[in-house]
Design goal:
The structure is a homodimer of 315-residue chains.
Chain A (H helix, E strand, L loop, with lengths): L3 E11 L8 E17 L6 E7 L13 H13 L5 E7 L10 H16 L10 H11 L7 H6 L2 E7 L2 E6 L6 E7 L5 H6 L4 E3 H20 L2 H6 L6 H5 L6 H10 L4 E4 L6 E5 L2 H19 L3 E7 L6 E5 L1
Parallel strand pairs in A: 3-4
Antiparallel strand pairs in A: 1-2, 1-12, 2-4, 2-5, 5-6, 7-10, 7-11, 9-10
Chain lengths: 315, 315
C-alpha cells in the first residue's frame, strides 16, 4: 500500500445534444485534484481535512460531500476496515457550470482511495461508488462520472443493470467551452426537462444520437458534429442561458460543426476539427455573450481526455 | 444499354427493437425479382406486364404499384424520356408479413431500371425513388428501402435532410424469422404506436439503440442481441400477434440473444450467434405458436445480406 497519493478527476461534457443522460466525455486540462493519506487509528472511515478552491462553499462532512461519499464507498468496495483515509480536495472546476464539477471531485477521490490501496480492482468496479456520490448531489445519472473515471466518451445503454461502453475520442476533435458568468444548479436544470415528449421528438433525438455514435466509432468528426441536434432538452434549457441561440449561431457561423449546452449548463460547448477554428469559435462566442447578453464569459479550447481518472504522484 | 435484366430486392427486417423508423437490415435468400426490357415506342413510362406470386392481389397500374412507382421515379432520375420500360414482378415475399415486401418489390424494380440503363449513378441516388414508392403504400419511412437497396444494416439519422449510414452485418449474426399465419397491414400497425411517450421510454430506447449501434460497429453480436429491448413500439404491437410474449420467451429460452417484431409484424425475428442455435430457436417458436395460439407458422433461418439490390442476369 502507498503512503500518500495525489489524483486527478477530469471535467466532463455530458449530453452532447441528443444524448441526455446517456453519454458524456472527459476533456483535457480541467478537473479536480485530491490528495489522500492513511490515518492508522481508524475503522475504514473517510475524513476530509481541507478543501481548497471552493470559496468555502463545500462541507467537510464526508457524508455531505460528493468526494467523501465516493471515497467512503470505494473504501467499502475495496474492503478496508482497519484504518481511515484522510482527503484534501482541491477544486479546479467551478461549481454549477455544467462541466461535471461534482463528478470530477468524486472521481478523483474514489481513484485516490483505489491508488492508495494499490487495489487491483478494474476501474469499472468503482462506478457504483461514483453513481452513489452523484445521486447525493444531483440525481442518479452516470453521464459525467463514467467518462471522468474511464476517459474518452462513455455511453450508457442501460441503467438497470448499469452498462457502460467506452469509445475513445478522435484525435482531431477540438472542443470549445464557453462558460457565461452565471451558475445553474443541476437540480434546477433537470426540472425544466419535459417528462412527456412526442414520438417525433424521440425519433429525431434517437436518430441523431445513433448517427453520432456511428460517426464516433468511425472517427468521422464532421459527421459527429452535425449530429449535435437535440429536440428535447436544449429547447427546454435554452431560456436558462441569456442569448443562448445567438451565441450558438455565432459558433456555427465561426465554423463549429455543432454546438449545444454542456450537461446542465450554463457552459456551452462547440466542436470543430481544427485548433485555430476552435479558438476563433471561442472568440465569436465570448463576443456574442458580451454584446447580446452584456455578460462576461470564460473560454477554453481543449480536446478529449482519453485517460480519465489518473494518479498524479505518490509516495 | 442492356436489352433485358433480371434483378433482386431482398427482404428486410426493420426496427430491431429500439430502432423504430430508424434502422433495418437486408436478409439473405428471401426477396422479390423483377425482369425488365425496353419498349422502344415510348416516352419514359413504366408498364407492368405481369405479376406472379401475388395471388392476384396487386394492381398492374404502375401508379398504384410500389414497383411501378419506384421504377417510374428511377427512370425520371436517370433521365430516359424516349422509350418505355416493361416490367414483370415476381413476388417471393408474402405481403403484410413485416419483411419489407413492398420495399423489396420497389428496390428490385428501381434497380432493374438502373441496370437496364447501365446508369453510373450511385445506389444512393435511387433512395428518393424508393421512399416515394414506400410512401404510396405505407408512409414515409426508409428503414426497409435503404437496407434493401444498400445491403447490410442501414441507419437513418435524419429524414430532413435524408441521411443513411450503412453498417455491414457481422458474419456470425444468425437470424431466425418466424411468420405466424396471419397478416397485419403496415398502416394498421403504425396506428397503434403511441404519438406521445415518456422521457423515460425515450432514454430507455435511445440507450438500447445506441448500445446496439456501437456493438454493430464492433461486431459484438452478443451485446448487439441484448440491446433488442424496446419500451415503445413492441408493447403497443404485441397484442396484434397472438401469444407474442410466450413465443418471445420461448426464443430466449432456446438461446436467442434477443427477439422482437420484424417491422410492422407479424413476423418475429430472433438473433443468435450460432446456426444450430438459430434452428433450435425456430423450432421452439413454431412449437409455441402451435401450442399457445393454435396457429401455424413458417420459420426461416438466415443471415444478413450485405449486398442489397443486385443484378441476377442480363442480356
Amino acid at each position: 500500500m502507498r503512503k500518500h497519493v495525489e489524483t486527478w478527476g477530469p471535467a466532463t461534457v455530458a449530453n452532447w445534444g441528443p444524448g441526455y443522460d446517456l453519454m458524456g466525455a472527459a476533456v483535457s486540462g480541467m478537473g479536480d485534484r485530491v490528495t489522500a493519506r492513511w490515518e492508522p487509528n481508524g475503522t475504514g472511515q473517510i475524513q476530509i481535512e481541507a478543501i481548497t478552491g471552493d470559496q468555502g462553499k463545500l462541507p467537510l462532512d464526508p457524508e455531505k460531500n460528493t468526494a467523501g461519499v465516493a471515497a467512503q464507498e470505494a473504501l467499502r468496495i475495496i474492503g478496508v476496515t482497519d484504518k481511515d483515509v484522510v482527503l484534501t480536495l482541491h477544486k479546479g472546476l467551478p461549481m454549477g457550470s455544467g462541466l461535471g464539477s461534482s463528478s470530477a471531485s468524486a472521481t478523483a477521490a474514489a481513484w485516490a482511495v483505489h491508488q492508495l490501496c494499490e487495489s487491483d480492482l478494474p476501474r469499472e468496479a468503482l462506478l457504483p461508488a461514483l453513481l452513489k456520490a452523484e445521486a447525493a448531489v444531483s440525481g442518479w445519472h452516470a453521464d459525467n462520472v463514467a467518462p471522468a473515471l474511464l476517459g474518452g466518451f462513455a455511453f450508457i445503454p442501460s441503467y438497470e443493470p448499469l452498462e457502460v461502453l467506452q469509445v475513445p475520442g478522435p484525435n482531431e476533435l477540438w472542443i470549445t467551452l464557453v462558460k457565461p458568468d452565471i451558475s445553474i444548479s443541476t437540480r434546477d436544470a433537470r426540472q425544466v426537462v419535459p417528462t412527456e415528449i412526442s414520438l417525433k421528438q424521440h425519433t429525431h433525438n434517437a436518430g441523431h444520437l445513433g448517427g453520432m455514435l456511428i460517426s464516433l466509432c468511425r472517427g468521422d468528426v464532421p459527421r459527429m458534429g452535425r449530429a449535435i441536434n437535440d429536440s428535447i432538452v436544449e429547447p427546454a434549457r435554452a431560456s436558462l442561458i441569456p442569448a443562448f441561440y445567438e451565441v450558438k449561431a455565432a459558433a456555427l457561423e465561426a465554423g463549429a460543426l455543432g454546438c449545444s449546452i454542456s450537461g446542465a449548463g450554463p457552459t456551452l460547448f462547440a466542436v470543430s476539427n481544427d485548433e485555430n477554428k476552435a479558438h476563433a469559435i471561442a472568440d465569436a462566442m465570448v463576443e456574442t455573450f458580451r454584446t447580446q447578453a452584456q455578460m462576461d464569459s470564460t473560454p477554453t479550447v481543449t480536446v478529449i481526455d482519453n485517460e480519465g481518472a489518473r494518479l498524479l504522484q505518490s509516495s
